[in-house]
Amino acid sequence: MSSQEIPEEKNLPTEQETEHGSVAVADENPFADPGLPPHEHRIQDIDERAAKRSERAIAFMFTLSMLATVGFIASFVAIPADKSIYVWPIGHISGLNFALGLTLGVALFCIGAGAVHWARTLMSDVEVADDRHPIEAEPEVRAKVMADFRAGAQESQFGRRKLIRNTMFGALALVPLSGVVLLRDLGPLPEDKLRHTKWAKGKKLVNMNTHEPLRPSDVQVGSLTFAMPDGMSEHDHDFQVQIAKAALMIVRIQPENIKDKRELEWSHEGIVAYSKICTHVGCPISLYEQQTHHVLCPCHQSTFDLSDGARVIFGPAGHALPQLRIGVNEEGYLEALGDFEEPVGPAFWERG
């Protein structure tokens, strides 16, 4: 192999010949610490006018965040939930969702952008090298940490730049209000709505299948009829909510077979009206045994005795079915003489 074919070796330590003829390697460290580059001052460090401009820019971003948070709350209150707007190139979207997303995004972005701009232009950017030290917190270490903290607070100009400090506090104080306002979307408080249904004095009992008012002659002994209040329609926007409380089952029992005194007083010629909603978990009751006058919930087999105040005789239900007091109006139709006197359906915290 010729000398031209021998590859050149690069980055190898330099060899030097000693006085005894041996070869030694030059004492050079290829991984020496190059040290920190010389610090370059920013324009804000040497020009107070530039620092003031940065201060105003940061304060503007924090102020814009506060205004965006106020806009978020105003949008939530003022914009209807069903309002639609056209936004190019997205198309038709919810105006409320668009306004909430835009204002909340601006509020959070401006806080972050203001903090970053503050750190990049006004806080000290001097590189500091610190030696490794033991993990245990000795008194000297704690003293040094506190001294470093005070030095950092002084270098950040937090106490000097009051405009930045006050607007930052304002932005951080207002942003959490967005989350508080969103709690309103959990829905309105139930108040006493669970205790009331569409039944009221004078409301006629309407057959749920034929949608015709019921006369006493329409209810035969041993039959089970389902009814709803007059005036309700399946096309109503809240029909499902209201029928879940107002659904009624009507049974005719021989008066001498009714054991409960109040049930007999609230009936008409043996026709009794009870809530169709099971008091366990709210399933609709649909099974009736005419010999025993028992009704059965198909979900968990709760059984109620309609001849004895609809009391529970089997199953997990904890309460009897509420009874509706009924009578007959001048036209001969069955009508309610008031609303249920207790909440229908499953037990809830106000009951008991």
Task: Give a description of the structure.
This protein is of the alpha+beta class and 352 residues long. It has two domains: 43-128 and 139-186; 193-336, Rieske Iron-sulfur Protein, CATH 2.102.10.10. Helix content is 32%, strand content 15%. The protein is built from seven helices and 15 strands. The chain has helices at residues 43-46, 48-78, 95-121, 139-155, 162-182, 239-246, 261-265; strands at 15-17, 23-25, 84-87, 91-94, 205-207, 224-229, 248-252, 271-275, 287-289, 294-296, 303-305, 311-314, 323-324, 326-328, 334-336. The chain has a five-stranded antiparallel beta sheet with strand order 5-6-7-8-13, with helices on one face. β1 (15-17) and β2 form a beta hairpin. α2 (48-78) packs parallel to α5 (162-182) and α3 (95-121) packs antiparallel against α5. The longest helix is centred in the first third of the chain and has 31 residues, at 48-78. The chain is elongated, with a radius of gyration of 41 Å. It starts with 14 loop residues before the first strand and ends in a 16-residue tail after the last strand.
